[in-house]
Sequence to fold (224 residues):
Amino acid sequence: EAGVAQSPRYKIIEKRQSVAFWCNPISGHATLYWYQQILGQGPKLLIQFQNNGVVDDSQLPKDRFSAERLKGVDSTLKIQPAKLEDSAVYLCASSPDRIYGYTFGSGTRLTVV
Amino acid sequence: GQQLNQSPQSMFIQEGEDVSMNCTSSSIFNTWLWYKQDPGEGPVLLIALYKAGELTSNGRLTAQFGITRKDSFLNISASIPSDVGIYFCAGQSYNNNDMRFGAGTRLTVKP
Fold:
């Protein structure tokens, strides 16, 4: 089975610019997550989708971050405008339901300069 | 929010030695999971635990779900160089749909 695909792998932008990340989950997985992993820390949930609806976005900085999952498959995460503290790895994960362990993609490493 | 305390923060061991790391929480979890993350990759699930007291093995890895449901440990026996990486515990409750991660244990294995 193909894994969770993410692109790009790396992105370097200047502060105040905008950036978008893309995720294609495992086929048939209804639940999709975006996590932020700052260097030296564990992943932190940003947003969770069940099909194309948002289940939990309580930790998403909504003044600058947005995410959508059109048609309940692919998802994009956008940051506008970016700040230096947004430098992190952004991980996408998917799961067939909300109970069992997730499968993570390889992540997008964002550097804001 | 729920806090996961993972220890130790890092470990340096000789090849062949056994390793133990643990995770404690201020809140009850219904599921405990252990992940390994290699550089430049996402975390990969090693073991999932679904019942208090459950002891589960996956090759040289053994993990237990604490009776209080507030802790879990992971043991690695007879470590090998490819065990190098960062190990994360994660807890999940039915009230919160997401997984909460510990800060990780960085394992170094010296040949």
